[in-house]
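Question (not urgent): is this output format expected?
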Amino acid sequence: MKVSAITLRPGHVLDHNNKLWVVTKSEIMQPGKGASVIHVELRDIRSGTKDNIRFRTQETVERARLEQAEFQYLFNDGETYTFMNNETFEQMAVPAEVIGEPARFLQDGMVVTIETHEGVPLNVSLPDKVTLLLTEADPVVKGQTASSSYKPAMLENGVRVMVPPHIEAGIRVVVRTEDATYVERAKD
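Got this back:
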């Protein structure tokens, strides 16, 4: 299906030059003169090679049709993550590089959406937010105001996040999986 280049986001799959490419990064650039362009980093699904392409924002590109299904996370062995289809109970092994950075937030039993093309997993979408326990939090620096400053803290999965000064270790917080940012204190 044809889509506007300005709508491209990481995880989208394109049919470009008779190959399937997954978008790994996208950035809109607005030069001082002329029209805006979108700079897209692509990874070839079959060979793994990368390419950088610029599209005019008003240009259209071909997105590949993908099958989507909900899977439940089971376990990982370091290089692959294993999921189970909630309807057919079939298991699927997904390479770590397909999931990328959000893999840090996978939890036992978490339901994710996996996009496949001809049976090959291309993208794993985690829930937008997860609730995790803070195991460490730096002490508050005197004079910091709650509205303008954040302090470093460590989540139970080993990910470092910035939290408001009033959040202490031992508190459960909601974190955005896309960019590992603090959202709010969890409601217990």
